[in-house]
Amino acid sequence: MRDVPAATVVIPRAEIERSPTLTQDALVRTLPSATTFRRTPSLVSDPTAQGLNLRGLAPSGVARSLVLLDGIPVNDPFGGWIFWRSLPRLGLEGIEVVPSGSSALYGSAALGGVVQLVSRTIDRPELAADLAYGNLGTGFLAARAADTWGPVRASLETELLSSDGYPLVVASQRGPIDTDTPSNHAVLNGRVESDVSEALHVFAHAGLFRENQNGGTRSTTARVELAHFGAGARLRTEGRGTFALDVYGRLQRFEQQRARVAPDRAFESTAASQDVPADDQGALLVWTAPAWAWGGTHVLTVGADARRMAGTSQERLFPPEPAPASTLLRAAGGTQLSGGVFLQDLYTVSPALELSAALRMDLWRNTQGEQHVERASGDVETTAFDSRTEQQLSPRLGVRVRPVNWLTLRASGYRAFRAPTLNELYRPFQVGTVLTAANADLRAERLWGAEAGVETGLFQGLTARVTGFWNVLDDAVTNVTLAEPLPDGTTRQRQNLGRARVRGVEVGVDWRLSRRWTALLAYTFVDPTVLLAPGQPELVGRQLAQDPRHRGTAIVSFEDPALLTATVQLRVTGPQYEDDLNERGMGGYALVDVAASRHLFWKLDVFGAVENLFDREYLAGRAGVDTLGPPLTARVGLRLRDVP
Fold first, then answer.
1. Which of 395, 296, 300 is nearest to 351 (CA)?
2. Which of 172, 235, 278, 526 is in Cβ range 3.0-4.6 Å of 311 for a Cys bridge?
3. Hey, CA dihedral for 625, 630, 632, 637, is it positive or negative?
4. What 3-state DSSP class applies to 463?
């Protein structure tokens, strides 16, 4: 890790196994630099509010960071958010996080950084499984099987989870319509690979995912159905380097139903239902040249990628008292085509000095955009949006210096961008009683940033890191409160904000106290401030919504195979605001999670885990109604590992 030019954090498999968290997003959020738009986990939160953001770049629910599974993007093609529950952890070897602008290599989605989930290698016959049950009616089953037949290897994994959830609305505002938040999901993934020769490796993978959620009332639901597929090849040559080709795609459908709620929450009715089919296809070709010497050692990488994303939001509305001008049906969507070429040189001058330089050119085009509206009077309005093409040049420069063996210095500067998603351009949405309109005229967000840090391993078993960062985000897409509601009652709209400054510092300590004891400490301070907001001067000086200044984690683990494995973690989150005007504040909170496991016999362990051990009550959202984060959640189960 100390040889990597960019500030990088890795969650290895051992930490994943020990973590008390149940869902993937909760696991990633144990890194203070990582957060999702809302404080609630994917166990109860709508998928559209679970995009990942790094280092405070989070003024809306869309992800501003790219999430990869073995190099393939998993961000939703329509909205950019992450279906975290479609990424089972039993088949993961580790999670890598680079929390800085990475468009120079990865293009649009990597404005705030990259998270890569790395699958376990298939090198022998193996069977693993987890079975658990806990409070809130939570049942969990995960299994993975792998086998080899000469040069051919294959794996199959599944995950099933069902939960009754908990009452989401605070007790003082809860009414007869408010119930628990039940949800369930199922995942099935398969992979086949083969070494055709010593030089050529080929593979194919596919998966299915389904998720059902209830937001706490009969008429507040969400459903996801997803199929993904891909294939690739790796060719290693002696004289011409390595060639890598990936092709991938997905088909999916997202359905959402929203309620109209009486002020006293005594009754509800269906306000709208949405059906959002979407699909995408992509390809990536990368060539890594053989290392060559010229004033040191150079490793050159050249690549090109392309992606097509298409989707339509088909919405049926149910106005309480329809008037002739009332909207009954609304369909909006389009197609986004994107592609880029990139070049990177890793230049090792000496073991003490390494330089990195990357440059990428991106081109994207929004086309076939259209909105179709049907009124109660029978009138039909069709609006065709003009096709728009934009381009972006993204550079990144970095340096890593190690003057002595125990000290590493890093610095980098970068430019990054994010094109607005089809969701932001065309799909309106509702959270609680707040309606937010889409905006087909949105421009791309652009980021200039820099970071500098130091890492030291002066003492045996202890590594400490400090990284300072400074980002300026122009034209950030955020949900802006309108001066006057629109005719349909919409009070917010997605708009390009103007300019925001996001600066801060990350501190981390990894300490192996002894052979059995380890401690991980991490803290992130972020100052996310609006600097410029044309047309919205009242936002200047405000803090970006859903963005706490302080986040910290402390994890202590004990591991003795003859006795037990145990982990205690403390997660601290500072105060933040629900809205752009900073009028709806939410206080900070501290949560304690614990997990322990003990070997029983053969390959079987028993384990238990508790999240929010002291049942701390805290606000998760204030969008018209105050909602709560999860209460104490506990589970016990059996774990099967390394069965040949």
1. 296
2. 278
3. positive
4. strand
